[in-house]
Design goal:
327 residues; alpha/beta; three-stranded mixed β-sheet; globular
Length: 327
């Protein structure tokens, strides 16, 4: 709501007589707190949107709790979004009777003009690049109407809102820059197709027997087997950082409270692994503590304690020689 309010302050509605009134929800009236919206730059916006939607579903949420909406159906169509749906994920177009279809396992795909009246735990809005939304050709005096459409889409998200854009962000995202977080996402490379080698038949030539001269062969001394220290060094090179830490320190239950061993200065990735959570969930917990940092930066002790409290456990923060943990 803070981001949505910043958008309307930059593009205030200019309602004329006869138009319906717009109810603007004030942030202080919200019944709960949610994560700070995240604007993601991606070379493939649709693939990025499905990446976050699939993460959400695999973390245990129902499919209909997430909606992928396009801000510009001409640039990013609903059909194009559905065509890039990952295998193993169900999806369906949002209609007025959507919730009567009992497709709770299907991710919702829609145009932002059709999401009014619905609510989703995760709202993902695509097509928010400069020149894409507001669309080219729309007079500057009418940009407030497009901002109102985006405002409605933002307020459909109950727990988390993500904006996806390519190249340069929309001026609407720039207007909300103080209330949202920016990041980038790169699609992982697609696996190379397997190529079956062509094996040609081998024709063995007829070889005359050759009498080889007797040559004295010197047998070199076999190299000594690797020492235990060398074997350990080779094993360490193939071992993931912090693996020894999680092998040595195990969770404990004291007085009914789960105590989790956490390395001092753990990053969001390391903390997520220690807690058995997804990194996105740990990031949301950090945002709830008003702490914003990339997932590979060390976290201070008080943030680690706050995140552990979010997941209903207590940390046992252990100092380590982290340089020795890097392979």
């Amino acid at each position: 709501l803070l981001a949505a309010q910043a958008l309307l302050e930059a593009y205030p509605p200019q309602l004329a007589g006869g138009e319906a009134d717009v109810a603007v929800l004030k942030p202080e009236y919200a019944s709960k707190e949610s994560a700070v919206p995240i604007a993601t730059q991606a070379s493939d916006p649709i693939r990025a949107a499905w990446h976050y939607a699939e993460q959400w579903v695999r973390s245990g949420h129902k499919g209909f709790s997430v909606c992928i909406a396009t801000a510009n159906g001409s640039s990013v169509s609903v059909e194009a979004i559905l065509q890039q749906k990952p295998s193993g994920v169900n999806a369906d177009v949002l209609t007025g009777d959507y919730f009567l279809k009992e497709k709770t396992d299907s991710v919702v795909v829609a145009d932002i003009s059709t999401v009014k009246g619905f609510e989703f735990m995760l709202m993902i809005v695509c097509g928010l690049g400069d020149g894409v939304f507001p669309p080219k050709g729309v007079p500057a005096a009418e940009h407030w109407r497009e901002a109102m459409r985006l405002y409605v889409a933002i307020t459909r998200g109950r727990d988390e809102v993500r904006f996806i854009y390519q190249n340069t962000p929309s001026p609407f995202l720039t207007a909300m820059a103080d209330k949202i977080q920016f990041q980038t996402w790169e699609a992982p490379p697609a696996p190379e197709p397997l190529v079956t080698p062509i094996v040609e038949p081998v024709v063995e030539p007829v070889i005359e027997p050759v009498v080889e001269p007797v040559v004295e062969v010197k047998v070199e001394k076999e190299s000594a087997p690797a020492t235990p220290v060398e074997q350990k060094r080779e094993s360490d090179l193939n071992r993931e950082p912090l693996a020894d830490f999680f092998d040595r320190f195990r969770p404990e239950v004291l007085n009914g409270i789960l105590v989790m061993p956490i390395p001092k200065g753990a990053t969001q990735w390391e903390l997520a692994r220690a807690l058995g959570q997804h990194q996105t969930a740990v990031s949301i917990a950090c945002q709830g503590l008003e702490y914003f940092t990339p997932p590979n930066r060390p976290l201070p002790d008080h943030i680690i304690r706050g995140v552990c409290d979010y997941f209903r456990c207590v940390p046992n923060i252990i100092s380590l020689n982290r340089s020795a943990l890097t392979p």
